[in-house]
Amino acid sequence: MNPATFENSPFLNACRLKKNTRVPVWFLRQAGRYMAAYRQLRSRHSLLEMVKDPQLAAEVTLQPVQAFGVDAAIIFADILPPLETLGFQLEFVQGEGPLIRNPIREASDLKKLKDPDVKKGLGFTFEAIRKVRQELAPRGVPLIGFAGAPFTLASYAIEGGSSKDKALTKTWMRRETAAWGVLMESLARLTAEYLTAQVEAGAQAVQLFDSWVGELSPEDYRAYVAPYSHQVLSAVAKLGVPVLHFGTGTAGFLEDLRDAGGDVIGLDWRVDPAQAAQRLGPRVAVQGNLDPTLLLAPWEVLKGAADRLLDALADRPGFIFNVGHGLGQTTPEDNVARLVEHVHARRLV
Ligand code: CP3
């Protein structure tokens, strides 16, 4: 593969704070149930079947690239299958989201965790990455790999599924502080290894999702989480591909999130984009931060919001247009198409 093909990628340029002639755009959850093409495949396969079949995963990854011309693909996978390599039993229950059958409840449960074999246990994703890279090579569209950050993964391992306030996780973190360190350390090692293998398979950037870290106070983030995110991000920084670091609800500790690592910081819509970029400073790129429910609004309203975001950040070296969290299930495909077109129409000087 000739890496020169990607020299003009607006997405990779922005990650590296290089000047662009237009603004790159892609979307969190750009492949998913809002797309008819996805629903068609999904009607015949479960989510985990799709993730674990490299051919299907590759096909779904390409759908939004083909349909909307986004500037990056993100490999179709999930943050939770890596937990299976530690011995957690994962299911997705229709209408309920993810479920871990054997969550951690006692410090002694940690002894039951397996030594993960990442290459073997997650080989389907590496194979899917190789397939997507072949398909995308002629288009010059780069592929993003990803993983869940230690805190967000720990929240599933402890709660056993989605939870609103992460109370079990936070209680465990404070009560079983030594065991928390052991768990976070093993999740950090697993995540670093998983992301490294994705880059070796061909991922040209990687994103660390700390989706639920906004449940924490700044003080708790610094004490219980940042060192482990830093462990992952500093290991991955050595691979030579841009690293994106994303969380939601992070307004209270954006600087700490930045200092934990990453070339690009992902913002949600709860922050003013210009103010957040100011706080982050010139050494990191910024990705975000449109409220995904704006894609449900009439086009004129969506366009107005997109223009204000572009006015705020388009001229900053290192801006990637995105939503502040995943696109919802009821997003009209038309709005996605028009939004991509609109962002691409903005010329930079
Ligand atoms: O296009 C893409 O963004 C790539 C694919 C992707 C998926 N999950 C597929 C998926 C990515 C990047 C993820 C990450 C992920 N998974 C996160 C972090 C990002 C975020 O949204 O904060 C989290 C917390 C998960 C865990 C997870 N997976 C939950 C809570 C759910 C259930 C919620 C829901 O929408 O049903 C999932 C399921 C899941 N993962 C879907 C998709 C497309 C739902 C679609 C389906 O059931 O067909």
Order of helices and strands: HHHHEHEEHHEHHHEHEHEHEHEH
As a percent range, the share of strand residues is 5-15%
Main beta-sheet annotation: 7 strands, parallel
Structural class by SSE content: alpha/beta
Count of discrete structural domains? 1
Name the hetero compounds present: coproporphyrinogen III
Oligomer: single chain
Instruction: Tell me the overall shape.
Output: globular
CATH class: Alpha Beta
CATH architecture: Alpha-Beta Barrel
Helix content: 40-55%
Low-confidence stretches: none
- Whole-angstrom Rg: 19 Å
Count all strands and give the number.
Answer: 9
Number of helices: 15
Distance between the termini: 32 Å
CATH T-level topology: TIM Barrel
Q: What's the rounded overall pLDDT mean? A: 97
Protein architecture, described:
This protein has 15 helices and 9 strands. The protein has a single domain (10-345), classed as Alpha-Beta Barrel (TIM Barrel), CATH 3.20.20. The chain has helices spanning 10-15, 36-42, 47-52, 54-68, 81-84, 118-121, 123-136, 150-159, 167-175, 177-201, 218-237, 254-260, 273-280, 299-313, 333-345, and strands spanning 73-74, 90-93, 97-100, 143-148, 205-210, 243-247, 264-266, 285-290, 319-323. Strands 1-4-5-6-7-8-9 form a 7-stranded parallel beta sheet. It has a two-stranded antiparallel ribbon with strand order 2-3. The protein is globular. With 349 residues, the chain is an alpha/beta fold. The longest helix is centred in the middle third of the chain and has 25 residues, at 177-201. Helix content is 47%, strand content 12%. The mean pLDDT is 97. A hairpin with a 3-residue loop joins β2 and β3 (97-100). The two termini are 32 Å apart. α4 (54-68) runs parallel beside α7, α10 packs parallel to α11 (218-237) and α11 packs parallel to α12. The protein binds coproporphyrinogen III. The site of coproporphyrinogen III (CP3) has 21 residues, from β3.
